[in-house]
Model the fold of this input.
Amino acid sequence: MMIFEDHGFQFVDDFIWDKGEVQTQRHKNGNRPYPLYQYPINCYEHIFVFYKHRLDNTLYPCPVCGCLKVNGNAYSGVGVKSWECKNLDCFERSAGNRGKRFSARTQLMTGLQRTENVVGEDLLHKWRRDVVKLAPVIKINSKGQNILGHTAPFPKEIPEYAVRVFTGVNESVLDPFAGAFTTTIESFRQGRNSIGIELNRTMFRDAVLTRFSNALGMRPKEVEREWRI
Done:
């Protein structure tokens, strides 16, 4: 967490992902049923939420009257400069005759308040607590084979929440460690653009030709031809 904060990110939330029953057998430690050999299964992970805003000194007009007669105000967060309308004829004044106070962040949040960005009650109910129980992705079959080709896939419910709650339709989502491309695929499903970066070329091809083709309703050959993979 300190590394993120040292680079200008601000901590928002910490969810604990309760995986329930997991597939690993590592806790058995070679099936040695003796003292000092046995340990509990690691069946949870932390999901940290941070945000970051670049230092923006742009002079924004008042969102109420549109006037550029504004003065800089205090910072409402790391890198978030706020402004106060100084137009005495503005339509919105406080009881103390203070002008409208706003920032680029509040403008962004207001702009996202559109019908297509409404977060459904089902999703909010599922994530209403900071301990969320989600079954892990089953990747090992009865023969002990990894059928997904990825060592640590996560369920689509995690990026679904992140995409729906922290972005709007047609905005872009970046996953710099795409892996099985779960985040990228879920972003497309939710009407967002997405950039997924993955060094493993084989994993990238598998994700695009199988999972992407299913998500987009296209045949793998069509995806391969259209995207020149």
Q: What stands out?
A: Helices lie at 2-6, 104-111, 121-126, 157-166, 182-189, 201-216, 220-227. The chain has two domains: 2-52+119-198, 70-111.
